[in-house]
Write a structure and sequence with these properties.
It catalyses: N-[(R)-4-phosphopantothenoyl]-L-cysteine + H(+) = (R)-4'-phosphopantetheine + CO2; (R)-4'-phosphopantothenate + L-cysteine + CTP = N-[(R)-4-phosphopantothenoyl]-L-cysteine + CMP + diphosphate + H(+). By secondary structure, the protein is an alpha/beta fold. Helices cover about 25% and strands about 30% of the residues. Bound molecules: cytidine-5'-monophosphate.
């Protein structure tokens, strides 16, 4: 049985991947399964926290004892996270948020036209939710955690990203064709704004989640 070291705390976790619609039947999306975010939500609940899980397009069942808010797009994820973060002690952004969305949404299904090239897809930037909640904390002392998937120069790029985002902790994963996405396992380094570096050996996503909560709980004390 886990230590109830998050008892009395409210934590917000985002999970899954946003989908940015082009028309009623098509979207731009990513390969995030939501498993890491769900592991974070389950382990926080087991440690006594009240948990709000903001889930983007995951096919996973609601974890027991967790408030689940289901959303689709990055803008919807932003609204849900900002609302839940108002009284949160910690926010963990495990969701893969689309950096861009189509500039226009076609109310009817986009059709191919005989003898005509397709229209290009024009993209606009989505808000960076992690940077926004870090710069403008809903509460003093709120602990904010981001995730970063990097393919090369993992530590150096992670450090830069941590600074750019302004969060307290950044979980850096190395990703590739067969790594991390959809998998049951993970391997990561958790970088702290205080200069700390916590390696998490290859193992179940639960183990990484427990390490994240250890680091969060220490910062909340
Ligand atoms: O910049 P990058 O997408 O690599 O950063 C990843 C981290 O930032 C994740 O924690 C993700 O949830 C968050 N993010 C966000 N809003 C975005 C893009 C990413 O909050 N528009």
């Amino acid at each position: 049985v886990a230590e109830p070291d998050l008892k009395g705390r409210h934590v917000v976790v985002s999970a899954g991947g946003t989908r940015e619609p082009l028309d009623p039947v098509r979207f731009l999306g990513n390969r995030s399964s939501g498993k890491q975010g769900y592991a974070l939500a389950r382990t926080a609940a087991a440690r006594g926290a009240r948990v709000t899980l903001v889930a983007a397009n995951t096919g996973l069942p609601d974890p027991a004892g967790v408030d689940v808010v289901r959303i689709g797009t990055a803008v919807q994820l932003r609204d849900a996270v900002l609302k839940a973060a108002q009284d949160a002690d910690a926010v963990v952004m495990a969701a893969a948020v689309a950096d861009f969305r189509p500039a226009t949404y076609a109310a009817g299904k986009i059709k191919k036209q005989d003898g005509q090239d397709p229209d290009p897809i024009v993209l606009v930037r989505n808000p960076d939710i992690l940077a926004e909640i870090s710069a403008d904390r809903a509460r003093p002392g709120q602990v904010i955690v981001g995730f970063a998937a990097e393919t090369d120069d993992v530590l150096a790029n992670g450090r830069k990203k941590l600074e750019r985002k302004g969060c307290d902790l950044l979980v850096v994963n190395e990703v590739g064709e067969s790594k991390t996405f959809g998998s049951e396992e993970n391997e990561a380094v958790v970088l702290g704004a205080d200069g700390s570096e916590t390696p998490v050996p290859h193992g179940p996503k639960e183990a990484l989640a427990e390490t994240v909560w250890d680091l969060v709980a220490r910062r909340l004390r």
